[in-house]
Input
Amino acid sequence: MKKHFFAFLAICLTINIGVKAQKIEPGTLWWDGYALWEATMDMDSDIIYFRGEEPNGDIDYFQLQKLPGNGMYGFVSDRPNFNKFNADLSCRVKYIRKDGMYFLSVQNKNGDAVWIFLLTPDNLENCMAQQKALEGQLPSNLLCNTLLNTAYLDFFSVEELRLMRNEILARHGYNFQSKDLKDYFSQKSWYKPAKSNSSIKLNIIEETNVQLIKSIEAIKKTIK
Output
């Protein structure tokens, strides 16, 4: 199962390398951990329709429209919100193509990711198997090299999410001011505090994971 999971990651990192424009193409498939979404486009408009199929057979829909600028989309709907995606109509969707990653990031007003759709070449059955493999992995093995999703992160408590988010920084030697975090990571053999936090740079996977974990932390705190 692990071999299939990491093979899936390799495909997702290399798919569509030759495509330069940051726009969602009709016929592409996107996995968010819960459903597999297919993008289609009405030839008479610039609205992109997404049809999502869940493992239990349920079908859902949403629509996006290209916004002025590069890579940003807005939700189009007669529904007032998108609680399914921890989002509302004010959220923007950014198509991110960076460092070999291809995914849609639903972003709140602060620009932080609240939901992720990963471009995939696979069918629903394979995506479900890969999600199961993902959920069988320890967070420490994934935080810095695997783009996480809400379905995976939903298993963790607010306290666990806080440690996961800060572990990404700790792996780069972040020098914590919070005593509990300083004490916690000082017990890790791999933790080597940096002289200056300003020199720490996160890659696109780490940056997005930090944003997504922080967003889910905030949401979970409101429903405690």
Summary: Residues 13 and 46 are 27 Å apart (CA to CA). The chain has two domains: 1-135, 137-224. The chain is about 30% helix and 25% strand. The longest strand covers residues 59-66.
